[in-house]
Design brief:
single chain; 23 strands
C-alpha cells in the first residue's frame, strides 16, 4: 500500500478479478472487513494524531454496501469484478483556530466490465431518486455515484467518520444490542441509534427491495436457485444468516439453503438445523425459533424468527432469519419480510410446476425415439440428432433402425411439418406405424403407400371435426431396407424418398450421387404411388441421409445445399468412419451460418465395412 500525494493522506488497496459467482460477494466482504479492521486496530502514521476512529459500525456498513454492489454486479453484469478501498485521512484541526474537525473517509469502488448495460437501479429520470438497486447505498452512505471509463463501469460510495460526530446510519434492526463501536483512547465517536432507522429504511427502500426480489425470482425455474437467490438477498441486508426449508411430497421438510455472513459457519449451522427441522406449519410470520449452537452470537446472545412459505394455500416450506442479539423487528419490517416470503413461495411453486411438467414431457418424448440403433452386421451406423426446441429431447424429426429377421434391417429418417407438441405426437405415430407395417411383411413401396393413406385420412378427419382451425400435417420420410448376405461383404439397399432430401451414395473414389428420386410428401394425396430404388452398398461405400434442417441451413440468401453444397460436404469427409462423418456433417451445418440453427437437425450415416483380413498362421 502506498500513500498518494493529495490534500488528504490517502491509501488505496484493490482486490482484482473476483469471479462472477456466488463467492464473489463473500470474497469482497472478507477483503473489506479484514482491511478496515486492520486499519482500525493500527492506524497508519499518515492518519495523524487527531484522526477519528474507524468504528465497528462504519466497518459493518462498508461491508454491507460492498456486498450489495458486488451481488448486483454478479447478477446483472456477469463479468469479473474489481473492488477498490481508499482511505482518506483529513488533516487535524487547526491548532490556532480549532476549526475543521478531523475526518476519515472510506471510499469503496465496485467495477465490472459490462459497458452494454446501464447501472441496475440507477437514478430515476422522473423523480431524481436512486432506483431499487442503489436504495441501500443512497440511504447509508455520505455520497455515491457511477462512473464509466472505456469498458469499465464503477459504482462507488463514501462513508465518513468525523471526530465527535456520528459515523453514519445503520439499517440493522438490532444494532443497539451489539457491542458499542470501539473508539481510540481520548476520542469519542457518536453512533446514531440504528433500530429507529430500520423502519425508516423499510419504508423508503422496502417497496423497491420487494420489486428487486420479484424481478430476480420471476424468471427462475429451479427451486434450488430460487432459495439460493432469496438467501443472498436477505443476508446481510436483514439478517446475519438465513435458512430455507422446502416441503417434500411425503409431508416432510428438506433443508434447501443455508447462508451466513461468515461462510465458515455454514456447514456446522446446516448440521445444527438439519437435526431439528420444523415439524409444524407456521401460520404467522415472525414466530420465534430456538437459536442454533453454531450460528454465532454476540455477548448478548442471538435470536431467530420463522416465516411461512405459502403459495395458493399450499405449504411450500419455512424461511428462517437469524441475527446476533435480539432480533426485534418493527411491524413494517415484519410485513416486508412476509412479502418477501410470499414471493419466494410463489417462485418455488412455479419452479416445481415447471419441473413436474418438464419431467412428464421428457418421459413422453423419450417414447418417441428408439433407445438405441440396431446393430447391422457388416454395416456401421451413426446418428446425430439435435431438436430445435429449447428443453426438448424430441422435435419434428425422427429416426429408427430396426431388424426384420436375421438378414434384413429397416431404416428411416423423417420430418413432420411443424415443431409444436402436436408435431411431436405425429413422430411417434409414424415411427411405430412403419414398424408395424414392416413386420407384417410390407416392402418399402407398400409401407410408404399405406403410411400416406393413414396420414391423409387423419388430416381429413381433423379438418372435418375442427373445420378451418385444424391444420394439415404433412410428413416427409426417407425409408429403406438393407439386406445382408452372409459371407458377402456389403449389403443390398432399397430406398425411397417421400418429399425428403434424397439420400447420397458416396463411392470409395469420392464420387457422390443421389440414391433415389424425389417424390410427393406423405399425407397430401391418398392415391400417390411411391417407387423405390435398389443398389449395392459395397465395402467402403457410404449412404448419407439428412433432414432439411441440414440442407436448408441458411447463410444470408444461400442455403447449404445450393449448388450441390451437401455433396461437397460429404466428399470432404471421404475416409471418415460413420460416427466421425455424421459429426463432420453436423459441424458443417453449424459452421455454414452465423446465427443459431432454426430447425431440427438430423444426420443418419450407413457405411458398409471393409472386410477384415485375418492374419496368417
Amino acid at each position: 500500500m502506498a500513500a498518494l500525494s493529495s490534500p488528504y493522506a490517502t491509501e488505496t488497496v484493490s482486490r482484482k478479478g473476483l469471479p462472477a459467482n456466488q463467492l464473489a460477494a463473500s470474497g469482497a466482504r472478507k477483503f473489506v472487513r479484514a482491511l478496515l479492521t486492520e486499519r482500525a486496530a493500527a492506524p497508519p502514521a499518515t492518519a495523524g494524531p487527531g484522526a477519528p476512529a474507524i468504528s465497528s459500525e462504519l466497518i459493518y456498513t462498508a461491508v454491507l454496501l460492498t456486498s450489495e454492489l458486488v451481488t448486483n454486479a454478479v447478477m446483472y453484469a456477469g463479468t469479473d469484478i474489481d473492488v477498490t478501498c481508499r482511505l482518506e485521512h483529513g488533516p487535524p484541526p487547526d491548532p490556532e483556530t480549532g476549526s475543521g474537525p478531523a475526518t476519515v473517509g472510506v471510499v469503496l469502488e465496485v467495477s465490472d466490465r459490462h459497458p452494454a448495460r446501464g447501472v441496475r437501479g440507477g437514478v430515476d429520470a422522473r423523480t431524481g431518486e436512486p432506483g431499487y438497486g442503489l436504495q441501500l447505498v443512497s440511504a447509508l452512505s455520505e455520497a455515491w455515484g457511477v462512473t464509466y471509463r472505456r469498458s469499465v463501469k464503477t459504482v462507488w460510495f463514501r462513508l465518513e467518520a468525523t471526530e465527535g460526530e456520528p459515523v453514519g446510519p445503520s439499517q440493522l434492526p438490532a444494532a443497539e444490542d451489539r457491542a458499542e463501536p470501539a473508539a481510540r483512547p481520548g476520542r469519542s465517536v457518536a453512533v446514531r441509534p440504528a433500530a429507529a432507522h430500520a423502519a425508516e429504511w423499510a419504508d423508503r427502500g422496502g417497496p423497491s427491495f420487494l420489486a428487486e426480489t420479484s424481478e430476480l425470482l420471476a424468471g427462475q425455474l429451479d427451486q434450488d436457485m430460487v432459495t439460493a437467490l432469496a438467501a443472498q438477498l436477505l443476508v446481510p441486508r436483514l439478517a446475519d444468516w438465513c435458512a430455507i426449508w422446502l416441503s417434500t411430497e411425503g409431508g416432510g421438510r428438506q433443508l434447501s439453503r443455508v447462508w451466513h455472513v461468515d461462510e465458515r459457519r455454514i456447514p456446522p449451522l446446516r448440521a445444527d438445523l438439519e437435526r431439528d427441522p420444523p415439524r409444524e406449519m407456521f401460520r404467522t410470520g415472525g414466530t420465534p425459533w430456538p437459536w442454533p449452537e453454531h450460528a454465532g452470537a454476540s455477548p448478548a446472545g442471538g435470536s431467530a424468527l420463522a416465516f411461512p412459505l405459502t403459495a395458493r394455500d399450499t405449504d411450500q416450506g419455512v424461511l428462517l432469519l437469524g441475527r446476533a442479539g435480539q432480533l426485534r423487528m418493527t411491524d413494517t419490517v415484519v410485513r416486508m419480510v412476509e412479502d418477501v416470503a410470499r414471493r419466494v413461495a410463489q417462485a418455488v411453486h412455479t419452479a416445481r410446476q415447471y419441473t413436474r411438467q418438464t419431467t412428464i414431457s421428457l418421459a413422453l418424448q423419450r417414447r418417441q425415439l428408439p433407445a438405441s440403433l440396431a446393430s447391422i452386421k457388416g454395416v456401421d451406423t451413426a446418428i446425430v440428432y439435435e431438436p430445435h426446441g429449447e428443453g426438448q429431447t424430441v422435435g419434428g424429426d425422427f429416426y429408427d433402425v430396426f431388424p426384420m429377421g436375421v438378414r434384413r434391417w429397416c431404416f428411416l429418417l423423417g420430418d413432420v411439418q411443424g415443431k409444436d407438441p402436436e408435431a411431436m405426437s405425429v413422430t411417434g405415430l409414424a415411427r411405430h406405424l412403419v414398424r408395424l407395417l414392416a413386420r407384417e411383411g410390407h416392402g418399402v413401396e407398400s409401407v410408404l403407400g399405406r403410411l400416406n393413406l393413414a396420414m391423409a385420412e387423419e388430416t381429413a378427419e381433423a379438418l372435418e371435426m375442427s373445420g378451418e382451425q385444424a391444420s394439415a400435417r404433412f410428413l416427409s420420410l426417407l425409408y429403406g431396407e438393407l439386406e445382408v448376405d452372409p459371407g458377402v461383404p456389403g449389403a443390398r439397399c432399397t430406398v425411397a424418398s417421400a418429399g425428403h432430401p434424397p439420400p447420397l451414395h458416396m463411392f470409395v473414389d469420392g464420387t457422390v450421387e443421389p440414391a433415389s428420386e424425389p417424390q410427393m410428401l406423405l399425407g397430401i394425396d391418398e392415391g400417390t404411388e411411391y417407387q423405390a430404388s435398389s443398389f449395392d452398398l459395397r465395402p467402403g461405400e457410404t449412404l448419407l441421409c439428412v433432414t432439411d434442417g441440414v440442407t436448408e441451413r441458411r447463410c444470408g440468401n444461400w442455403q447449404l445445399d445450393d449448388n450441390d453444397g451437401l455433396i461437397e460436404v460429404l466428399r470432404d469427409g471421404l475416409g471418415l468412419g460413420a460416427k466421425a462423418l455424421a459429426e463432420h456433417v453436423r459441424r458443417a451445418a453449424h459452421d455454414f451460418g452465423t446465427g443459431p440453427v432454426e430447425d431440427d437437425l438430423s444426420v443418419l450415416v450407413l457405411q458398409a465395412l471393409l472386410p477384415t483380413v485375418e492374419p496368417r498362421a
